[in-house]
Amino acid sequence: MRLFITSFLTFLIISTSSFAGFAEGKKAYEKKDWMNAIKELRPLAEYGNADANMLIANMYSDGLGVLQNSQTAFNLYKRSAELGNVDAMLSVGTLYLNGVGTYTSYADGVSWYKKCANKRHYMCTFLMGMMELYGDNNSKAILKVEKDIKTEQIKTEQIIKAYKWFRISADNSANTRIAHTSGKLADLIKSEKLTPEELEKAENLVTEFNELYPLKQK
How far is Cα 39 from Cα 34, in angstroms, rounded to an integer? Predict the structure, then answer.
C-alpha cells in the first residue's frame, strides 16, 4: 500500500511538473521565443506529450529556432498523431499526400484524414467530403465544386459519402466558415444529386457516424 501511494505521488508530481513545463513552453512558442520553447517542450516531447511533439514539429517544419527538417517534422507529427493529437493527424495525412518528409501515399494520407475525421475535426471531415468527390485532386475552388455538383456525373456511392462528410462537418462549430461551406455543399448535393432513397441512405450514414462518434457537448 505504501509503495502504491509513493508511486501515485511520484506520478502526480511528474504530471503537475509536465503541465507547468508545457504551459511555459507554449507561452514561449506563442511569443516566438524559440530557444525557451525548445528548452521547455523537448523533454516533454521525449516523455510522450502529444501537444509538445506537435509544437516542436511545427518548428522543424518551418525552421523556427531550429534547422528546417521536413523528415524530422514528419516524424514528430506522426508521434503526436499516434499519441492522439488531431491537428497532428491532419498534418500527417497532408504530408503523406504531398510526399513531404516521407514517401507519397494516397492510401496512408486518407487513412490519417479518416482517423482525424472520426475525432470530428472540422477540416478533416470537410477534406473527406472533398476526397470523395475528387480523390487526391481535391484542391478545388468552392465555386468550381458547386458547378461540378450541378453539372458533372459523379458516382452515386461517392456523392452519398461526400454528403455524409459535408453534413458532419457542417455540424461542427469549431470553424464557422468551414461549417457554413460544408452545409452549403451538402444542401447542394441534396437538391441536385440525391433521390429521396439516396438521401435516406446518406442521412442514415450520418446517423450511424453520430452514434459511433457522438458530438461532445460544451
Answer: 8
